[in-house]
Amino acid sequence: MSLHTEFDSIAAMRDALRAHRVSARELASSALQAAQAAQSLNVFLHIDPALTFAQADEADSLLAAGAKAAPLAGIPIAHKDLFVTQGWRSTAASKMLAGYVSPFDATVVSRLREAGAVSLGKLNCDEFAMGSGNENSAFGPVRNPWDHDAVPGGSSGGSAAAVAAGLVMAATGTDTGGSVRQPAALCGVSGIKPTYGTVSRFGMIAYGSSLDQAGPLARHARDLLELLDPMSGFDPRDATSLETCDGQTNAPGRIRAQFQAQAERCQQAGSQPLKGLRIGVPAEFFGPGLAPDVASAIEAALASFEAMGAERVGISLPRTELAIPTYYVIAPAEASSNLSRYDGVRYGHRAAQYGDVAEMTSRSRTEGFGSEVLRRIMVGTYVLSHGYYDAYYLQAQRVRRMIVNDFQQAFAHQCDVIMGPVTPTVAKRIGENREDPVADWLADIYTLGVSLAGLPAMSLPCGFGGESGRLPIGLQVIGNYFSEGKLLALADCFQQATDWHQRKPEHA
């Protein structure tokens, strides 16, 4: 067992660091050795031990001085390669940005650094976050630690796989249409997408600006809290960042206080910690497309919540299927706009041979972007073009508002949280949908509506399925706006009663 894997939580590792039973440098060295040994998973895109040890030594100095150490001092994490970082390369897993090193850190990176976290490097992902399986990386697919022939989910597959394989305690990810929740589900770890606007997007390489949101992945809910609370907060450099959250200042401490208040209520309720909680279960989440093994695991998880006193309420989200075409109009349209900056002029890949500026731009993009990125740019450009804007993009925005209203209707009159599956099936095989790339889009049916509405949601391990019976299944828990702390407390309550989050792949 590697030294850094001897601890079952960030809190336990923090206690050991502060008691000087272990050093941040020792933990960093152990984690780097584990990352080197797990190269076959293709999780990391860039590791620089000198940068990691510099951060670890700084943490050790503060801990040795007896100064009040930051809450994550010495804790090894890693960042999805969609966050720009000083020192480490920031490529968005694309040839377009191969070798690019940012002159500044993303806000998420800098805030976790200020909290004392030690970064191991940059994690593989789908190119520009476009994908549901992490097969679209220009640097090869990430492999699922539970089955190396299966996908880890996307686009934050490297982040989920790194946590599942025990390489880091936690990792950052991004969620545009499910890209934190889906890989968390398929890799058997926990992940949360907070309310849109609560975490800064500054320095996060853009895909769909009205949808992108950063979120952490870890083994269990309490570790998610350790990252999400310091990550969150208003950032004047991000035009979409919120100053207040339902009347409360958007700042570190908000989510933790909400978590502690809900956790205390659960503790005081005794053997029925969730008595009074109404769980909405959408009928549309349990249609013909849901695999029997996934349905069975979700039903068992819901039964666990009911055993703790929660009430199950049937609800309807009638526009669930419409979330797919709505998302795949809006997101590609925004991607077409965001990726127009990669023209071979200022930064990024530039073709070696071209006749004029127009040809240089065309050749640079053709060579630098992968097939999925080109596909979405073409879709987005089409729906924004003259004569089609009203018919597609504007209509999609109208349906988006209806989807928002469906969720708000449910929360206002029927339930406190919504639960259901994250994905219709367990992880598919790598290359399974190579001949039909659009088939991957259909796997997002349960996650897209949440992203379109900007709601917080998370994925919790709740079972296993597949032919081998060894592929993880995730439960999705959806809350109303700004309820991240409540969701994490409910998840923690579930994880105190179950052990799915403690299961690990054989080699981890």
- Strand proportion, as a percent range, falls in 5-15%
Mean pLDDT: 96
Report the strand count: 13
Low-confidence stretches: none
Assign the structural class, choosing from mainly alpha, mainly beta, alpha/beta, alpha+beta, or little secondary structure. alpha/beta
What is the H/E order?
A: HHEHEHEHEHEEHEEHEHEHHHHEHHEEH
The major β-sheet equals: 11 strands, mixed
In the CATH hierarchy, what is the superfamily of one domain?
Answer: Amidase signature (AS) domain
- Shape by Cα distribution: globular
CATH topology of one domain: Amidase signature (AS) enzymes
Architecture of one domain in CATH?
Alpha-Beta Complex
Under the CATH scheme, which class of one domain?
Alpha Beta
Instruction: Work out the helix count.
Output: 16
Helix content: 25-40%
Subunit structure: Heterotrimer of A, B and C subunits.
Family: Belongs to the amidase family. GatA subfamily.
Catalytic activity: L-glutamyl-tRNA(Gln) + L-glutamine + ATP + H2O = L-glutaminyl-tRNA(Gln) + L-glutamate + ADP + phosphate + H(+)
Pfam family, one: Amidase
